[in-house]
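Possible regression after last week's pipeline update?

I re-ran a chain I had predicted before the update to compare outputs. Posting the input and the new output here so someone can diff against the archived version. Not blocking, just want to make sure nothing changed silently.
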Amino acid sequence: MPNRRAVLALAAGAIAWPLAGRAGPAQTIGGTAFGTTWQALLPAGADAGAVGPAIAAAFAEVDRQMSPWRADSEVSRLNAGAAGAHPISRDTAQVAAAALELAARSGGVFDPTVGPSVARWGFGPIRGSAACSPSDLAVEGGAVIKHNAGATLDLCGIAKGHALDRAMALLRAADLRDALFDLGGELATLGTRPDGGPWRVGVEDPRGGAEPVAVLALPPGLAVATSGVTTQGYRAGARLFSHIIDPRTDEPVTGALLSVSVVADTGTGADGWATALLAAGERDGPALAARMGIDALFVLADGAGLRTVPTHRIGRLMS
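New output (post-update):
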């Protein structure tokens, strides 16, 4: 049973990619991080300067802080520690607090303590008590409080979105006003394409088809993340085992729901909600997204074809 291919969970099980079309001349910078690749699409002539190395350094820092695959990361040391307060960096505290808040807002379908269940199904390295819940953790100032020694923290469902947000902040600081940034299938926008139009991204057919299921025209300052069941899953007999675990059953999600794409103001929000809504499933996911005002596109198997369910305002972005 294969582990996740990325250090941080690649939530983009069905990857959204840029549709360049006739966008005009552009330049790219890029590299590798978290077991995947990253790329920034910039206007030709933009002064990228030292922003590429700065982004690479930021991603390396996120890896050192939040990767459960590294025994020396902050998260791994926390998970191995006893009950009580564990000092952590400001960034890890921020992401941990966001994860716990999302757990509460989502009714528990996003669960940052689900790591031991993820490992039990062959997708992760975290060992601990599967009986723990988000109530066993708290963030106070610069520390995570473990109320239960067996509690563990898994930020894989949200940390790559945080890394995307850090990259976008570095682009803004370098005064790069127009850009499309792709971090392993999670994307964020600044400004417009070189031809003045909105950045357009396609949501991949989760069955592997050549044509996108939908095309989204993204206004400036938004992020999109996709979580799916196929890319990181495995089959045993007739069953597909997804890397996304439903905390309500402690089993991989099953059913007709194949992927969920979420558009949000931040990569952290898009990443976390895409994970949560896929875990919620085909029945509860769309209802949760509608209730919480989340711009999401659900892609479901429908016989030999596919069916899409848009929620909130995402229909306005589809073309």
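Follow-up from reviewer: compared with the archived run. Residues 234 and 240 are 6 Å apart (CA to CA). Marking as no regression found.
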